[in-house]
Amino acid sequence: MRGATRDAGVDGIRGIVSMGAFEGGMRPHDPRLAPARSGWSGPAPGRGQPARKLRLCRTGSILQNGTVTRRDDPFRVMFVCTGNICRSPMADVVFRWFVDQAGLSDRIVSASAGTGDWHVGEPADTRTLAALERRGYDGGRHRARRFTLADFDRSDLVVALDRSHERVLSNWARTTADTDKLGLLMTYDPHAGGDLDVPDPYYGDAGMFDEVLAMIEDASRALFRQLEPAIRTTS
Known about the structure:
This protein is of the alpha/beta class. The chain is built from six helices and four strands. The protein is globular.
């Protein structure tokens, strides 16, 4: 825990965020910067369900008034799926792209891990890399790793890609502080409706990898848009 004390968890960022143009030289014509889609090519999501607001508890994170105290170390986000070769690497790469384009790479960092150890040390699935490349991302540096209890200490927000991962992480949580860090990626997407799980594309074809990546892009964009205004107040 690097000696940090922890504040009580809060229910969300207040007054966030009608985000128009990004700062930091982002290209407005890039389709990844467009507003979230109203749907995707899989089953139609529901409507009218509000997106989840961030619950952040670490000292230097969001306080009750919605501001952020200054902190010298970056805010750390960890994405978790099963084997760390498909969904969580996508989320990590996409989320980091938004962070980099906003000029906040020194304030927010991300990583990914799996609940299992089947693929430790391996690159991302070749279909994951191909889907990312088709959208202009580079996942070539990824190497799979397993989530450890130390990742609770190193992370400010631990984002599960589906509810099975969330259950595993909840069972592994040692304290309320660990539990308060957990989030489910699709709950941050206001258009997700009842689709709370990012489906596992491992046994699917290239088209399924593209659909999963599109879901992850929308949810990662929404997550970043919640986090970005609070982080900027400390810059």
